[in-house]
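$ fold --in a.seq
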Amino acid sequence: MPPPLAALAARLAGPDLAARPVIFYAGLWDLAPVVGVCPAGYAFYDILYSEAEAPLSDTAGLAGLIVAIDAADHAHLTGAAVVAAPPPVRMLDRLVAVLASNHRAQSDREIGYEQAMWKAALGERLIRDFRVFDRVGDVLLMEHRP
């Protein structure tokens, strides 16, 4: 396990946090099994298909909840992020990426839609009702404001 993930796993397993529910925000959703945490709510919340029923919003109300969020996502939510233009991609690099993988990369448009879904489902509430209480590498840990 890479050292930053080992540090996050150790922090979440600490005696003060181990019993608390955790949501992994947006692109961190798949870290739960890697760091040894069963995520709060439903396990596959990267694509928010069922958000009309508001399960993520309901989960956000759990007592003692921790939200693990990438520092860049937090900066984006607070407006502190400066969005840089993506670097140009050479046609040969694009062709190699397509031929060398059976997975399709998300387009910038898809990434934007996903960010908007996460912001609507949880991000706005994070900024309003939560505070950062710790940082482990590039991951911020947030909890309900007192």
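$ fold --in b.seq
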Amino acid sequence: MIKVFKTDLFRLLRTKAFYVYPIFLAVIQILNMSLSVKYVSSDGTETVTEIASGHAVAIGPVKAFGCIGDGLLMLFLGLALVIFMTNESRNGFLKNAAGCATDKRFLPISKILTGIVIMLVYMAEYMIIELIFACIEALISGKGIEYNAVPAGDIGKFTAYVFLCILVHIAVIAILVLMHEITHSRALGLVAIFIYSATLVDKIIEGAVNLASTKITWLADIHIRKYLMMFNIEGGYLSEGYYPVTLLVICLIYGTAATFLAIQASVRRDVR
């Protein structure tokens, strides 16, 4: 198991898609800084006026973990993971891995662990890039840096929210691994992560339930949004649509079921 995981990590570091996320973040930050000023002509003199309001550049836990609930992290995590997984079928790697592994169940478990590594690395990169550009903004604008802590009464709620968001991403990783073990299709994996990270799956489910409730009256009493993972986390830990206990149960069900099915698919599938 350890050898398979080490091999996957080695392959991950050689996958170009793994490095797209930090590059994208840096480009977005540069664009934000470039568009944060405007040129105003006054008495024939061109000056630079800052659009952003406030007397300080804010940093803090809420901003540092700002990537976990908006779907952007999930999108790039899914893209990197799908490309990484489908690369294994090239150059005979899948046959070699299956031959070296004492148990084929290690293969999907290793992929899930690799996906978790990608998630943690991306979260760390987001925090570092946010901090670097906050310092650059403060330096350029002459503002100070202000630390905004989580309100004392919300520390437990915020910590639980971060933990549940991580569980949501892990559940999605397991689902992507299951799709890969069944189909081995890069196209389907990429389409799936685009649709899910944009909350389109949740919207389709909600729309279908609302439509069905016009014919089946008892469905109208079901608050379907509380059972949808992306809708739960997209509004933050203070959102009225955030149900932590329900979300925990859903994440455990989805993650466990997808992992189990991925293992079964890997064991039963012949390596060609």
